């Protein structure tokens, strides 16, 4: 059975190594969320004073032993901001997955189309060989009748040989295209012989204004939403780190000389005279402002590229349609007329060869225009992040029988930590 596009996309979605790695990236991000939520560890300190000196402090009888337990109290909401940054970094993994998913599936469609094109090229090469063999047989009969030269017969034999080599080359190209497609789901040996695709089914294009409205769904732009929130959170975290933290300590002191005990209480806080994290705050603010410019540049670039792709689609569709509907029937009719006329001595050998080449050229140009149409349409749908025409199943939940290797998971790490 020929491989369908849905099967190729399902295999890719389930087995592509670049998609499979995102489940581990998500786990790593959730582990960092857990780490960001942890408070600083308390510190236990022991101190012995008044020993090893002179006079009554020569021994340990006058020693003072202190045991202090201290805790750093983070001020300014540092812990909450750390958690916020970690959460947005986890969300960024989800956004990156959606973008890579579109890229990987679009590449699978391109390689699928490459196999379909190679199959059609074999058909064209076989047709060229068939025409060359028929022409050689016609020339042989005329040569035997004395109405064609031996040179014409030899030239026709050369065309047959070249056509046979073209068939062999087309088969090699198909084999390479099959290997390239199977590599999308991690296989080095293709488990299929052919693919099922109608390259000449050219769908109607939606209005360009409709496509332009879909630009907001573009994976490249959607990622900026999450990244903008992350940059905001990083800026706020840098600002909170400029606030000094408070360290509180409580302890007990024992005086060996009098065998008395006393409690101690300590408070300490750095004086924010020099370092208030000014440099980091400025860096984060600059990165945040830079992101806005990056998004604007990306949006302009996408709009220009989408408009160019749409114009190319119209050209490719018109070219393929007119070649198959107008030029190809005329080329076929002209070739048949010249071939019959050649048998009757009305046309020369060169006219016969030119007519055959013209027919094959129209067939080849129509195929190339159709393939270019589909390749361009796939790129357009990848950029907009939508199924504009329904021709290719790249949108979520449109691939039957596929299980995605990665989905946003519940924050099970925190739950496990709480249970333990």
Summarize, please.
With about 425 residues, the protein is α+β, with helices and mostly antiparallel strands. It has ten helices and four strands. The chain folds into two domains: about 325 residues, Outer membrane efflux proteins (OEP) (Up-down Bundle); about 60 residues.
Low-pLDDT ranges: 410-420
CATH fold-level topology of the largest domain: Outer membrane efflux proteins (OEP)
Broad CATH class of the largest domain: Mainly Alpha
Helical/strand content category: alpha+beta
Number of strands: 4
Record the strand order, biggest sheet.
1-2-3-4
At the fourth CATH level, what is the homologous superfamily of the largest domain? Outer membrane efflux proteins (OEP)
Sketch the major β-sheet.
4 strands, antiparallel
User: Which CATH architecture of the largest domain would you pick?
Assistant: Up-down Bundle
How far apart lie the N and C ends? 53 Å
Helix content: 55-70%
Q: Spell the H/E element sequence.
A: HHHEEHHHHEEHHH
Please tell me the overall pLDDT: 88
What overall geometry do the principal axes of the alpha carbons give? Answer: elongated
Strand content: 5-15%
Q: How many domains, as an integer?
A: 2
């Amino acid at each position: 059975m020929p491989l369908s596009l849905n099967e190729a996309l399902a295999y890719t979605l389930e087995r592509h190594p670049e998609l499979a790695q995102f489940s581990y990236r998500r786990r790593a991000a959730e582990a960092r969320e857990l780490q960001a939520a942890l408070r600083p560890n308390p510190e236990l300190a022991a101190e012995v004073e008044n020993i090893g000196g002179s006079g009554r402090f020569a021994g340990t009888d006058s020693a003072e032993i202190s045991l202090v337990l201290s805790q750093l109290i983070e001020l300014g909401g540092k812990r909450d901001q750390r958690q916020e940054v970690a959460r947005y970094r986890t969300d960024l993994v989800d956004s990156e997955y959606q973008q890579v998913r579109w890229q990987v599936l679009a590449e699978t469609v391109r390689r699928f189309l490459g196999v379909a094109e190679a199959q059609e090229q074999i058909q064209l090469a076989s047709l060229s060989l068939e025409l060359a063999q028929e022409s050689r047989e016609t020339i042989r009969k005329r040569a035997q009748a004395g109405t064609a030269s031996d040179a014409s017969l030899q030239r026709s034999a050369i065309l047959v040989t070249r056509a046979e080599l073209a068939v062999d080359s087309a088969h090699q190209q198909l084999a390479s295209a099959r290997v390239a497609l199977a590599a999308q789901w991690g296989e080095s040996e293709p488990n299929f012989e052919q693919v099922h695709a109608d390259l000449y089914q050219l769908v109607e294009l939606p209005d360009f204004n409709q496509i332009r409205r879909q630009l907001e769904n573009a994976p490249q732009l959607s990622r900026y939403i999450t990244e903008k929130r992350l940059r905001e959170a990083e800026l706020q975290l840098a600002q909170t780190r400029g606030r000094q933290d408070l360290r509180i300590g409580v302890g007990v002191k024992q005086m060996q000389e009098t065998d008395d005990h006393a409690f101690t209480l300590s408070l300490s806080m750095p004086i924010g005279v020099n370092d208030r994290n000014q440099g980091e705050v400025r860096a984060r603010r600059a990165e945040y402002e830079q992101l806005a410019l990056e998004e604007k540049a990306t949006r302009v670039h996408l709009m220009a590229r989408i408009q160019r792709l749409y114009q190319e689609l119209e050209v490719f569709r018109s070219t393929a349609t007119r070649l198959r509907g107008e030029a190809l029937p005329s080329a076929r009719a002209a070739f048949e007329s010249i071939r019959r006329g050649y048998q009757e001595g009305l046309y020369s050998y060169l006219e016969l060869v030119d007519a055959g080449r013209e027919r094959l050229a129209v067939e080849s140009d129509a195929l190339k225009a159709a393939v270019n149409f589909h390749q361009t349409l796939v790129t357009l749908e990848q950029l907009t992040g939508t199924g504009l025409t329904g021709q290719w199943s790249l949108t979520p939940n449109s691939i039957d029988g596929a299980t995605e290797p990665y989905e946003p998971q519940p924050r099970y790490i925190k739950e496990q930590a709480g249970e333990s």
